């Protein structure tokens, strides 16, 4: 499983996705963080966030390492989540502009028809954003903006982040033994 973290606000979502996937012990976790993602992680979560989640991953790849294993379709993965996904990263994906490892790894997921979840984090949206989301959806990605489930009545921001992260992991259609509060009607 690959987790990408780009520079959009909401870096805690990527941290929680890594924590949840690592806790299952059922997947080899690869992590790639863009330079803007590193900066946002430090600002929003703290300087220790990146070293902490990098330690949970089997492999932490440098964003500039376009020759990494996850840049090749012959390296089999179960899927990828980009949490959060910046508009810059979304736009690069929509244009197939694979100038860094995160976007290259996404491109590989798409060309190999593997599960890909993009937690696009931006508001409000203009037509260019919407067209980029439509394009990546047509390519096979799942666009899943990090919207809180108010029916779960989260008491804290951490509870809302946890639910959003669990929902994104669930979109990979892989049973990782992660339960979340589901709507019961």
TrEMBL record:
<dbReference type="GO" id="GO:0016829">
    <property type="term" value="F:lyase activity"/>
</dbReference>
<keyword id="KW-0288">FMN</keyword>
<comment type="similarity">
    <text>Belongs to the UbiX/PAD1 family.</text>
</comment>
<dbReference type="InterPro" id="IPR036551">
    <property type="entry name" value="Flavin_trans-like"/>
</dbReference>
<dbReference type="Pfam" id="PF02441">
    <property type="entry name" value="Flavoprotein"/>
</dbReference>
<feature type="binding site">
    <location>
        <position position="151"/>
    </location>
    <ligand>
        <name>dimethylallyl phosphate</name>
    </ligand>
</feature>
<feature type="binding site">
    <location>
        <position position="167"/>
    </location>
    <ligand>
        <name>dimethylallyl phosphate</name>
    </ligand>
</feature>
<dbReference type="InterPro" id="IPR003382">
    <property type="entry name" value="Flavoprotein"/>
</dbReference>
<feature type="binding site">
    <location>
        <position position="34"/>
    </location>
    <ligand>
        <name>FMN</name>
    </ligand>
</feature>
<dbReference type="GO" id="GO:0106141">
    <property type="term" value="F:flavin prenyltransferase activity"/>
</dbReference>
<protein>
    <recommendedName>
        <fullName>Flavin prenyltransferase UbiX</fullName>
        <ecNumber>2.5.1.129</ecNumber>
    </recommendedName>
</protein>
<keyword id="KW-0285">Flavoprotein</keyword>
<keyword id="KW-0456">Lyase</keyword>
<feature type="binding site">
    <location>
        <begin position="86"/>
        <end position="89"/>
    </location>
    <ligand>
        <name>FMN</name>
    </ligand>
</feature>
<feature type="domain" description="Flavoprotein">
    <location>
        <begin position="2"/>
        <end position="163"/>
    </location>
</feature>
<feature type="binding site">
    <location>
        <position position="121"/>
    </location>
    <ligand>
        <name>FMN</name>
    </ligand>
</feature>
<keyword id="KW-0637">Prenyltransferase</keyword>
<keyword id="KW-0808">Transferase</keyword>
<comment type="function">
    <text>Flavin prenyltransferase that catalyzes the synthesis of the prenylated FMN cofactor (prenyl-FMN) for 4-hydroxy-3-polyprenylbenzoic acid decarboxylase UbiD. The prenyltransferase is metal-independent and links a dimethylallyl moiety from dimethylallyl monophosphate (DMAP) to the flavin N5 and C6 atoms of FMN.</text>
</comment>
<dbReference type="InterPro" id="IPR004507">
    <property type="entry name" value="UbiX-like"/>
</dbReference>
<feature type="binding site">
    <location>
        <begin position="7"/>
        <end position="9"/>
    </location>
    <ligand>
        <name>FMN</name>
    </ligand>
</feature>
């Amino acid at each position: 499983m690959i987790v990408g973290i780009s520079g959009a606000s909401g870096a805690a979502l990527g941290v929680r996705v890594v924590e949840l996937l690592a806790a299952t012990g059922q997947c080899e976790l690869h992590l790639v963080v863009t330079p803007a993602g590193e900066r946002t992680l430090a600002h929003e979560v703290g300087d220790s966030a990146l070293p902490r989640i990098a330690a949970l991953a089997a492999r932490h790849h440098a964003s500039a390492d376009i020759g990494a294993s996850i840049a090749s379709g012959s390296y089999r993965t179960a899927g990828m989540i980009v949490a959060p996904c910046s508009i810059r990263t979304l736009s690069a994906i929509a244009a197939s502009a694979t100038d860094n490892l995160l976007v290259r790894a996404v491109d590989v997921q798409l060309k190999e028809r593997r599960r890909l979840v993009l937690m696009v984090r931006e508001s409000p949206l203009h037509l260019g954003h919407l067209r980029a989301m439509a394009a990546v959806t047509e390519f096979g990605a799942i666009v899943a903006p990090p919207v809180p489930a108010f029916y779960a009545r989260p008491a804290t921001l951490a509870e809302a982040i946890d639910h959003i992260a669990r929902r994104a992991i669930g979109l990979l259609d892989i049973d990782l033994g992660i339960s979340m509060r589901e709507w019961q009607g």
